[in-house]
Design goal:
The chain is mainly α and 255 residues long. It is 52% helix and 2% strand. It has twelve helices and two strands.
Length: 255
């Protein structure tokens, strides 16, 4: 004692102004991101960009600055994918308010994140990117599709199967690896969620026999009770939670 109560970069970023006039706002937001990128470089183990993106939740963007803000926002997403959930909330909100969307750029970034992270098993980055493409009604590119075919993360698999059921994934699309999970044995393995949910939703057939869930009393009991773990209605807009961003870990948006 005495010790500071917050990181120095938090104090500096929070103190930067964000004015309302078009030219002032453009200069201010550029300064905010330039400062954040520099602090993120110097403090790679801290949530600098996540805090910065969360701090912008109450800004009313001048329509002329909205495309510029999207470019800066997506740079932050590429640099720190943990900002993605909050960034998607801004993009969806802006689109709903009629500000428009930089479709080509957003699609390039989200598809690129899927291509980079899906096959590596980085489920959070891949599933948020895929969720963003579905919610923003943007196409899933071939490179991203090939990466999705290799994923074993249950949330990514189920979201991909959901997209496929909506006709958003063109054929040919290889689900051979996932079809191998549709057995009674897999109901008790690490991929039980896919084995159960994909059959309940009718997204994948049982590998052996007409219905592998029906042959297992425990999971059949769950299905008869109407238990499901994937809510297909959750493709859509995010809403502000009103929770302060703290140091970048508070939930700024919710479904």
């Amino acid at each position: 004692m005495p010790i500071p109560h917050e990181f120095p970069w938090v104090t500096e970023i929070r103190s930067l102004p964000l004015r309302n006039s078009q030219m002032s706002q453009a200069r201010d937001v550029l300064r905010v991101f330039d400062t954040a990128f520099e602090h993120a470089r110097l403090n790679p183990d801290e949530h600098v960009l996540r805090y910065t993106v969360g701090r912008l939740k109450n800004v009313r963007w001048d329509p002329a600055n909205w495309p510029f803000f999207q470019h800066l926002l997506l740079q932050a997403v590429v640099a720190e994918p943990a900002t993605l959930a909050t960034a998607l909330g801004y993009l969806l909100q802006g689109r709903e308010e009629g500000l428009g969307l930089e479709n080509d750029l957003v699609s390039e970034v989200l598809n690129g994140l899927i291509s980079q992270h899906a096959a590596l098993g980085h489920g959070s980055e891949a599933v948020w990117s895929l969720w963003g493409l579905l919610s923003l009604e943007l196409p899933i590119e071939p490179n991203a599709l090939r990466a999705l075919e290799q994923t074993t993360d249950c949330t990514v698999v189920l979201t991909t199967l959901h997209a496929r059921s909506l006709g958003l994934i063109p054929n040919p699309f290889d689900t051979t690896m996932w079809e191998g999970l549709m057995t009674v044995d897999e109901l008790y393995g690490s991929n039980w969620l896919v084995s159960y949910e994909a059959r309940v939703k009718g997204w994948l057939p049982s590998l052996r026999g007409p219905d592998h869930i029906a042959t297992d009393p425990n999971f059949n009991w769950l299905r008869n009770l109407g238990v499901s773990f994937y809510d297909t209605s959750r493709i859509g807009p995010l809403k502000l939670t009103g929770v302060a961003p703290s140091i970048g870990v508070a939930p700024i948006f919710s479904l």
